Amino acid sequence: MLLFDPESPYVRWWLSEDGGTSEGRCLSGPNWAKRLARSIPGPAALKWIGYVLHNGGEAVTDPVSRLRPEDLDRVRQTIELLPEQNDLTCRVAQEWLARRPQIPHLLLCDTGFFWRLPPEASLYAVPYELRKHGVKRYGGHGLCHQWAWRQVERLQDGRATRAISVYLGDHTDIAAIRDGLPLETTIGFSAVEGIISATACGDIDPTVVFQMQSEGMPLEQIRLLLSGKSGFTGLLGKHAGLVDILRGTTDPQAHLAKEMLRYGILRYIGACIAVMGGVDALVFVTPHPGACLGFVAEICRALACVGVQTRAGTIEPEAACELTDDVSPVKAFSLGYNKWQVLAEYGSAFLPYQGA
Amino acid sequence: MATLVFNCGSSSLSYKVFQTPRGRPPQVVVAGKAHRVGVTGTAPAFVEHHAGGEVRRQETLIPDHRTAARLILEYLRATGVNVELVGHRFVHGGSLFNASAFLDRDTLRKLRSCLPLAPIHNPISLGVIHECRQSLPEVRQYVTFDSAFHCTIPDYAYTYALPRQIARRFGFRKYGFHGLSYWFVSRQVPGILNIPADRLKLVVCHLGTGGSSVAAIKGGRSVDTSMGYSPLPGLVMSTRSGDVDPMLMLYLMAVYGMRGDDLMDMLNRKSGLLGVSGFSSDLTDIIQRLDEDKFAGDNRDEQPLLAFRMYIQRVRKYVGGYIVALGGVDALVFTDDIGVRSWRVREEVCQGMEWCGIRLDAGRNRQGNPGATCLINAGDSRVSVLSIPSDEELAIYLQGQELLLTGALDAAV
Fold first, then answer.
1. Where are the beta strands (DSSP E) in chain A?
2. B397 partner at 20 to 30 Å CA-CA among A234, A349, B55, B103?
3. What is the CATH number of the domain that holds A279?
4. Nearest-by-CA chain B residue for A193
């Protein structure tokens, strides 16, 4: 199978064949869709092709769905919500739908899981006049959180009914999940809202936007500033990701960035527990389990007040490890996350239902 | 010694004159309020004065707050009240004021530079200050700040993760408000619970008829609060939206061609309970509608039940978040109009909060007297739950007394 995930200005791809897997990325620009197609080593026997759509808005509401050429116009409606990323998804999909018309194409939508957020969590307290323009909280990383819930079910043999899934990465976010359904999450209308990330500011007073605009800053510049130049990168004054700020450093700004991340996570875990009226299991999901282990342990220790009893001794970074002891009222797990493998599982599980 | 305290609302001016008889608690000698200040309409503006059990009402033109202050000062002079100290409330002191301050040329200069931070409230307060300087040139004045109590919030909670030069240029950071109320409440609780102030961890919900916020208070100091650079973010309020994604504004401006100032007006004056319920900004109205019509229809413009649920959920999210951030809590406090009057709000906020040790006593909560401090948790609740009426004017007075004391100490040194 072949998977595409836009990460503006790149499109990343991942190819799984009998002989193994390969991956790469291509910079968007003139003729880039064709260049991308050429750069992927001749996939001969593909079963299916999948495309990650980061925000499906109100047009794409299933986590996994079949994509046919006639669906593209509907998917393009979402571009205005997340201009760069969604445009890339649509253009790659258009190219490969034409190249491989005979195999199934799947849309893997990161907001699908949160389509069922209850209205008190998904709506903003703004007039209907604004709400009717699709102004609502769509959430994010839904495919990851849904996968995390299934892991909790497996690890706890179905005993946990209320879980909090914490995705720790360059864009950290949290979901409160009860019986497999989302009740609350940190990402809102866009991925800027919520917890501080590598390049986005997270929660800020919306008056800030107005102030910058009244000083004559163009809208496009403000948008880039909040989503691409803030967060860890803005605080440190140079590009920085999660691993950079977790690495022990003497830079006081890196220390501040880490403290803001830790504090944001703790505060939202508390908010999620309050919304669910308690919690049975916490699961930290990360593509960098080794780098995050100390940080996750620190967070778990700070959660002693809600019944997280951390295991004594050192914990080895494994693919899946339990952080709490056997009698801990609230369980905590750390799971390694391989995005491509998980996306591949989603597609492979979906296709048989489709009779493909 | 009589202290006059002014408290500005956007269309009103309240005042109280306090005296502290030796060895007794502070007493209000005269109090009053100018109503409909600067409001154009059919109903007339008026000033009410309450003294010695009598009410005097004076209907007159009150075009602005400075005029209201002049009318009040004239009344006090005419009735022989000898004012020796005047206290003011200033909503937003920015980073220039970490505590209340006596008025001198330096303070005045700093106050002027704070005007743009709260473009509606700050100029009003400054007008009242100027009137007092003119009418009572010999009398000492001091200023208290709604933002000052939050100056102890640590950097990881007040910083907005924007590029540093942008944050510095505009002064973007969290300031927080309702500080006088939080200061007042956090000084009451140690005595009520008999826990030393420096060990006490509190979450306080200031739920007002206009603005609302939540604060986390540790050892008598604010460590976080839900409002921000401006009083817009945080809880769902009467007409303010509370938290919204900042990108939402950019989207509506870029895709729907809305104007920035129209959007700000919409988020500040047409959102919150009013925006969701579609008919009222008053939580009491909305609760009444819930009782009349539990299953409201499918009208998407008018959703009182949704408005109520969103209001509650937002309070719960902040309460839960702060309790975890504090690593547990000793007391949860409700204050201001809605906080002390609505048992329904307190009941819904505390429901299912056993995970952090909160259990309400349903009966005590419903019978709580809004005019007095009430302990409303169940006997076996690990966390105390209190309803405490706030008294901003008394807080302004007490801060003045502390200033006098430290001023005298400084002089002695």
1. 2-7, 10-17, 20-27, 49-53, 64-66, 105-109, 162-167, 173-178, 181-185, 281-286, 320-322, 331-336
2. B55
3. 3.30.420.40
4. B245
